[in-house]
Each structure stands twice: as structure tokens, then as C-alpha cells.
Design a protein that fits this description.
By secondary structure, this protein is of the alpha/beta class. It has 10 helices and 9 strands. It binds iron/sulfur cluster. Iron/sulfur cluster binds next to loops.
């Protein structure tokens, strides 16, 4: 397995001296000369952890609901044009965010990716998926695309602790993620890892162990968000019965700031906050104030006079 992470085609990496960590926004601006917006698209996929292939309940925190594959011709363009009609940016990453973005027959994926890349203003593709949804023909197609345009794959790890992955019913283990990240990198495809901090019953040192694991993998980017409960997720029932203990805001700010100080300096940070969408979000309350949370994490770094990678 290569240890050098592939980066999206043509990307530039500005010096991070003026920032506390390597944020995606400045990387996109340096690469395209303007602000770039990600436009979320739903390819109509489902997920093997929901459709009965691996399990039917899904991850315990997942509020996506279940459905059958509905790949409608033209729907990608419609979604995209509706979303960009009220955006001020003129350059876009088409982002296949919902469910498992590679869980469909190859010809369906090829058609949708072709449609997405031909849309006005689209400068690149991002595809979010599970590490066990990457058959060889799909990796080959992604490698071909990554050679032609900026592209990255977002891969859910969520926790580097197998016991936690079992508890949240991820239906894959840490090794599955390690192997998938290696296969993608070997094929020249940039990988963005997803982590959740504060998963129920996870040991307090789990986030920092996850960062150590990521540092040793050919990963180009990282997304972190606090564990939160959304309406419709299996775990929402435990929260509604008062049986779920959630981490405090202070704990999260500390862990996120610590994670950045221990993160390899070349890794691009795509996100350090996150919450459920609008009324779907149930708890914790503080997670929805993402801007405030973001600035408090930066403040924590400034107070400690530390930046990304300072404590490696
Ligand atoms: S979180 Fe993702 S992998 Fe888990 S059940 Fe939901 S769609 Fe599937």
C-alpha cells in the first residue's frame, strides 16, 4: 500500500502558516481561483446496511430511512440546477452525499457521474460511500475519472474501535476501512475519512486513537463531527427514553482541538462540526451552532498557541 496520499488532480496547497489548520476552503480557492461550493446530490442509491444485504436496521445513528434504488434519468441535473439557482458561487463540486454513493450497478454510476461532470460550473466530483462498497470495476472507473478531473471519495470509518463499530452496527470493521483506503490510494484516488467523536460508550481516548490511525494511512482529507441524534435513527428511541448520555460541548471542543494538533499537517480538514438537518436534529442542542463551535475550536488552539500537527 502506498503511504503517499493521492491528491485531487490539479489541486494547489497554500501555505497553512496564516491558518491554524489546513482548511478545505482556502485549498479550493487556491486551486480554482474562486470560491467553490459543494452541491449535494442524491443518486437514488440505498445502502447494504439497510437493504438486508448486510443488515436491515442500518447504523444506529442513521436517520436516512430505507428505500429501493431509484435511479431516475435526468434527476441529477434537476437537483443540481435547483440547488445552484440561489448560490452566488460559479464553480461547484458535485457531491453524491446520500446513502452509499457507489452502491449501484456500474452502468448506473457511470451514467450519473457523466451527467454530473457535464453540468455548468462543475469542476469536480466528491462521492461518499462505505468501505465495503468498492468492487474492483468501480475502483477502476473512479481511477479513470480521478485521472481526468478533481475527484475524491469520502469513506466512513466513524470510529477506530471495533467494539464501537459493532455497537453502532456499522457492519464493517476497522480493517475493512484500512484496506479500502489503501486500495483507493494505490489506484490514485484521493480519500477523505469520516470520524464521529463522542459515540455512545466509547472510551474517552478513542478520538485521539482514531487520529493516530488516520495519520498512518494514505488519506488526503478528514471530516469530523460530534455524535448527534436525529429523528428516525434507531438510537433516537434510547434518547427519547432518557437512556443515552451525550458528551458535553466542552468535551467536544477539547477533543476536536486536540485532534487537530495531532493530525498530519498535509491532511486537508473538510469539516470539524456538523449536526442533523433542521427539524431532524434532536440532540445535543449545542451541535447545531456550528459556526460558534468552529470558532471555539479555533480559539482553543490559539489559546494553547498550537496548530495542526504541532503535537505529533
Ligand atoms: S450511515 Fe451510511 S452506512 Fe450507515 S446505514 Fe446510513 S447510509 Fe448506510
Amino acid at each position: 500500500m502506498t503511504l503517499t496520499p493521492p491528491v485531487p488532480k490539479g489541486f494547489r496547497f497554500p501555505d497553512i502558516e496564516e491558518h491554524l489548520f489546513r482548511k478545505l476552503g482556502p485549498v479550493l480557492r487556491a486551486s480554482f481561483g474562486e470560491q467553490v461550493a459543494r452541491i449535494s446530490l442524491d443518486g437514488g442509491y440505498t445502502c447494504p446496511n439497510r437493504d438486508g444485504t448486510l443488515a436491515s436496521g442500518g447504523c444506529t445513528y442513521c436517520g436516512e430511512g430505507s428505500r429501493a434504488l431509484i435511479p431516475r434519468a435526468g434527476s441529477i441535473s434537476r437537483q443540481f440546477l435547483e440547488s445552484v439557482s440561489f448560490r452566488k458561487e460559479r464553480a461547484f463540486i458535485a457531491y453524491f452525499q446520500s446513502f452509499s454513493g457507489t452502491y449501484a450497478p456500474l452502468d448506473v454510476l457511470q451514467r450519473q457521474w457523466r451527467e454530473a461532470r457535464s453540468l455548468p460550473g462543475v469542476v469536480g466530483l466528491a462521492i461518499s460511500t462505505r468501505p465495503d462498497c468498492l468492487p474492483k470495476p468501480v475502483i477502476r472507473e473512479l481511477a479513470r475519472l480521478a485521472n481526468e478531473l478533481p475527484l475524491w471519495i469520502e469513506l466512513g470509518l466513524e470510529s477506530a474501535d471495533d467494539a464501537t463499530l459493532r455497537r453502532i452496527n456499522r457492519a464493517h470493521d476497522v480493517n475493512c476501512f484500512v484496506e479500502a483506503a489503501g486500495q483507493l490510494a494505490d489506484a490514485g484516488i484521493p480519500v477523505v475519512a469520516h470520524l464521529i467523536f463522542g459515540l455512545p460508550q466509547e472510551p474517552d481516548d478513542a478520538p485521539q486513537r482514531a487520529i493516530s490511525l488516520i495519520n498512518g494511512l494514505p488519506v488526503w482529507g478528514l471530516k469530523i463531527h460530534p455524535f448527534h441524534v436525529v429523528r428516525g435513527a434507531p438510537i433516537a428511541r434510547a434518547w427519547e427514553r432518557g437512556k443515552l448520555s451525550l458528551k458535553s460541548r466542552d468535551w467536544y471542543v477539547d477533543q476536536a482541538a486536540d485532534a487537530l494538533t495531532r493530525l498530519r499537517p498535509d491532511i486537508v480538514v473538510h469539516r470539524i462540526t456538523g449536526s442533523g438537518a433542521g427539524p431532524k436534529h434532536l440532540a445535543p442542542d449545542w451541535a447545531v451552532q456550528t459556526k460558534k463551535l468552529y470558532s471555539d475550536i479555533e480559539r482553543r488552539l490559539r489559546k494553547r498557541n498550537l496548530r495542526q500537527g504541532a503535537l505529533i
